[in-house]
Amino acid sequence: MSPLTEEQLHQIRDERKEQIMAAAAKVFARRGISGAKMSMIAAEAGISHGLLYHYFTSKDELFTAIVRDAMESSFQAVGSVYEFPGSPIEKMRLLTQIILDAENIPYFMLIHALHTADDVPAEAKKLDEQYPMQGYVDLLLPLFGEGQQAGEIVAGDPQELLGDYFSVLSGLMVINAQPETGYRMPDVDVILRMIKA
Amino acid sequence: MSPLTEEQLHQIRDERKEQIMAAAAKVFARRGISGAKMSMIAAEAGISHGLLYHYFTSKDELFTAIVRDAMESSFQAVGSVYEFPGSPIEKMRLLTQIILDAENIPYFMLIHALHTADDVPAEAKKLDEQYPMQGYVDLLLPLFGEGQQAGEIVAGDPQELLGDYFSVLSGLMVINAQPETGYRMPDVDVILRMIKA
Amino acid sequence: MSPLTEEQLHQIRDERKEQIMAAAAKVFARRGISGAKMSMIAAEAGISHGLLYHYFTSKDELFTAIVRDAMESSFQAVGSVYEFPGSPIEKMRLLTQIILDAENIPYFMLIHALHTADDVPAEAKKLDEQYPMQGYVDLLLPLFGEGQQAGEIVAGDPQELLGDYFSVLSGLMVINAQPETGYRMPDVDVILRMIKA
Amino acid sequence: MSPLTEEQLHQIRDERKEQIMAAAAKVFARRGISGAKMSMIAAEAGISHGLLYHYFTSKDELFTAIVRDAMESSFQAVGSVYEFPGSPIEKMRLLTQIILDAENIPYFMLIHALHTADDVPAEAKKLDEQYPMQGYVDLLLPLFGEGQQAGEIVAGDPQELLGDYFSVLSGLMVINAQPETGYRMPDVDVILRMIKA
DNA sequence: TATGAATGAGGTTTCATTCAT
DNA sequence: AATGAATGAAACCTCATTCAT
Questions:
Q1: Mutation for testing the A interface, residue in B28, B34, B116 having most A CBs under 10 Å
Q2: A12, C39, C95, D184 - which has most CB atoms within 10 Å?
Q3: Which residues contact A47 (CB under 8 A, 6 or more apart)?
Q4: Chain A partners within 8 Å of B184 (Cβ)
Q5: pLDDT tens readout for residues C3-30
Q6: Which 8-state DSSP code applies to residue C119?
C-alpha cells in the first residue's frame, strides 16, 4: 500500500537523523548549548527548522542524542587501545595521536558544553554520570601500570597521572575547537613527555 | 552633611563598576556569552538589572570591558616573570603556579568565550587581535632561550614550545572552569615536564 | 478482475468521507476547532494525515462539511415529531428523549463550537444563519400551540418557551460532551416539567 | 532607596494582575484554552505580550490562576444562600437569579474549558477535583430538604434534583457565553419550575 | 489511492533594553 | 542613583498543508 517500502522509509529516516546530528554536533560544538540556535542547525543540515522537530522532539533531545553518540563511540575508541601494536608507551602514543585528530573535537566540545551549561537536559546529565572521565582512566590503568613497571612511563600515582593526561588532552581539544584563535595543537611527543619516563 | 565631591562620586562609580565586572566575569565564565543573562549578572552583583545600564550601555559593552581588563592585567602579570627569583626554569615554574590559580579561571574563560561565540562585539574582537597569545610568547622568548642555553629547558623551536605550553595551560583553565566535572588540574611539575630538559 | 466502475469508485469515496467525518465529528466535539488537530482526526479515522487532504481540501472544509451534515439531519429529525404517536406533550416527551441520546452530542457540540470559535470558516457561518435555532422553534410552534390549547402545556409565549426549552437541551448536551465531569443528564421528565402544565 | 515604595509597587502589581486575569477570563471563556492566544489576552488587557510573562510564568499558570479564582469565589457565592431572605424556594429563586447574571458566564465557561480541553495543566485539574459540582450540591442539600418538607419543592432524590438543576444552569451559561447565537437565557421562573412543587 | 517527509506561518516564551517614578 | 514595570525582537516549537514516491 505504501508508496515507499518500510525499509526505504527507515533508511531515509536514519540518513536524515545522521545528517542532522552531524550538523548539530558542529553547531553545538562551536556555540555551546544556548548559543546554538535551531535555525542554525537546520541551515547547517540544509533543511527547514520544522523538519528538525520531525526527527527530534526538542533541542534538548537533539543535544542529548548527540552526546550519547559521542560518549558511546569515544569510550569504544579508547577501549581499542589494547589492540594497538607496540609497547605500552607506544600504545599511548598512538591513542593520543588518534584522540588529537581534529575530527574528534566536536566530541570533546559536547562534553565540555555538558559541563558548562546549567540548563542541561536531565537525560544528558545522566549520560555524563554514566560515562565519566574516570571511566577512561579505569580503562587504561592496566596498560599504564604495565608501562610503569617496564620503566617506560614516569612513576607516580597512575590514577592521577592518567587523569592529568586526559585533562590536558580535553583542554587542548576544547580550546582548539575554533579555528584561527592563536592556540596551538602540540605535537604528540610534546604532550607525551608529561608521562614518559 | 556636605555633598560628595565630584571626585568622590567618580570613585564610587568606579568601585561599582569593578563590583559589577567581577560579578559579570564569574557569570560569563560559567555560562558563556549567550548563556549569561543580564539578570543573573545583576543578581550576582546584588543590584537591580536596571542599574546595570547606568554603568554599562549594553551587555556587549560590559563583556568588552571585562575582556579588556582581563587581557591587560594578564599581560602585565606574565610580564612580571622577569622579576621572579631563580633560574629560568624556576621562573617558569613560579609563573605557571601563579597562572594555574583558580582565581584566574575567569580570565581564560572570557578569552575562550571570545573565540567561541560568533556574536562577539566588534570592540572585543579588536582586543583579541591587540593582545593575541603570541604576545605572551614574545614576552617569554628571551627567558625561554636563556633556559635552553642553560640546558634547563628542552631543545626545540622556542616559539612552538611556548605556544604549546600556553595552549595546555589555557585548555586546563577552561575545562576546569566548572566545579565537579571530573577533570583534574595537574600539579605544576607534571605540566612542567613538557618543557623541562 | 474487472476494474471498478466509476460508480463503485464514487461509492467507496463517499464511504471514506463518511468515515472521516464521523471521526472528525468526535474529535471536534471533544476538543473544539483549534483543539482538534488534523493528525488526531487522521488517527481516529485510522488513516494517514496526508490522505485526509484527498478527501477534504482543508480543516475548514472538513469542519464545514460536518456541520452541514449535522444541521441537515437534526432539522429532519425534529421535523419528524409530527409522525410520533400520542398527544402533543407526549410527542414532545418522545422528541426530548430522542434528542438527549448521547450519540447526538457531537451535533450539539459542533454547533456550539461554531458559535464559540472566531476563526470559523465563512461557509460554516452561512450554514449557521441558514439553520438557526429559530428554525426548530418554528417547526414545533403548531404542536406547541396545540398542546397549550389542550391544557397540557404551560401557558405563555410559545416562541419564548420553545426557545428556552431548546436552550436548556442544548446546554445539557454541550456540558455533557465530556465524560466524567460531574455534570448530570437529567431525566426527561425533570426537564419536561419546564413546559408541562 | 526605591523610587516607588514597596506598597506602591505591590499595588501596581496587584492591579495589573487583576487586569490581566479579567482580560484572560474573557478570552479563555470565549475561545477555550487552545483558542485563546496570549497575544489576544495581552491586547484585551491593553499591554504587551511580554508583560504577561512578568506576571504569569506561562499560559498554563495564568489559566490555573483564573480557574482558582473562579472556583473559590463561586463557591463562596453559593454558600451565602443561607443568608438570603424568604422561604427555601424563595432562597433558591434568588440564588438562581444571581447565578444567571451574565457577568458570571466566564466562571462557568472556564470550568467548562477545564473539562473540555485535554491539555489542562495538572494544577488546574487538581482544583477541579477540589471544588467539584458535588460541592455545590452538598452545600444546598439542607436547604433543599427543608423546602421539600415544607412542600415547596418537588419530591424526589434531592442529590439528583440539585445535580440536574446545576447542570441545567451550567449548560445555559455555557451556551450563552457567546452573544448573538440565537440561544435564549430563560426567565428564572421557567427554570424554577423544574424543582418547584 | 496512500504514505509520511518536508515546509513555513504563527503561537509561546525569553530576555536585552528602555523608562517612569 | 536605583528600582522594577514595560516593550519587542528573536528564539523555540506546533501543526496545517504540500509533495515526492
A1: B116
A2: D184
A3: A16, A19, A20
A4: 160, 163-164, 166-167
A5: 557 777 788 888 899 999 999 999 998 8
A6: S
- Say yes or no: Cβ of A49 under 7 A from any atom of strand E: yes
C1’ E1 / CA C16, Å: 12
Taking contacts as CB-CB distances below 8 angstroms, the residues of chain B near A105 are: none
Q: Measure A22 CA to F21 C1' (Å).
A: 26
> Is B135 within 8 Å of chain A by CB?
no
Ordered mean pLDDT values, 10 residues apiece, chain B (197 residues):
68 89 92 91 96 95 92 88 95 94 86 79 82 88 96 96 95 87 92 94
Contacts of C1 (CB under 8 A, 6+ apart): none
Q: Are the beta carbons of A156 and A144 closer than 8 angstroms? A: no
DSSP letter string over chain B? -PPPPHHHHHHHHHHHHHHHHHHHHHHHHHHHHHHS-HHHHHHHHTS-HHHHHHH-SSHHHHHHHHHHHHHHHHHHHHHGGGGS-S-HHHHHHHHHHHHT-GGGHHHHHHHHHHHH-SS--HHHHHHHHHS-HHHHHHHHHHHHHHHHHTT-B--S-HHHHHHHHHHHHHHHHHHTSSSSSS-----HHHHHTTTB-
- Residue A37, CB, strand E, below 7 Å: no
C-beta of residue C122 within 8 angstroms of C-beta of residue C71:
no
Mean pLDDT in residue range D110-136: 81
In total, chain D counts a number of residues equal to: 197
Residues in chain A: 197
Nearest by Cα to D116 from C105, C36, C177: C177
Residue B138 near chain A (CB below 8 Å):
no
Cβ separation A116–B31 shorter than 8 A: yes
Reported residue count of chain C is 197
pLDDT at residue C4, rounded to an integer: 59
Beta bridge partners of B153: B196
Among candidates B106, B172, B168, B100, which has minimal Cα distance to B133? B168
